[in-house]
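Incident log, structure service

09:12 report received: a user says their structure output differs between two submissions of the same chain.
09:20 pulled the input from the user's history:
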Amino acid sequence: MSSSIFAPTSARGATCARPSRSVFGRLRVAFALSKQRRELAALDDAILKDIGLTREQALKESERPVWDAPRNWMR
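09:34 re-ran on a clean worker, output below:
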C-alpha cells in the first residue's frame, strides 16, 4: 500500500491524531483528504518546490481516490 504525503485534518484544520471510528468520522477524514488533494493540485510550481515536490508528484497524489489512504488514517 502506498502512503500519502499528508495527514488528515479535522474540519477546523488541526491534524487528527486518531480519526473517529464512526462512519461520520471516517467520512469527515475522507472529505478532508479529498480537499487536501484538490488544494495540492492547485499549488503553483514555486510552492511545490519549497515543499520538495514536483508537479508530477503533486498531480499523482491529487489523483488518488479518497479510499487510497494509509490504513491508520481510517481506523
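09:41 both user submissions now match this output. Likely a transient worker issue. Closing.
09:42 reviewer note: Residues 23-70 form one domain. The chain has a mean pLDDT of 80.
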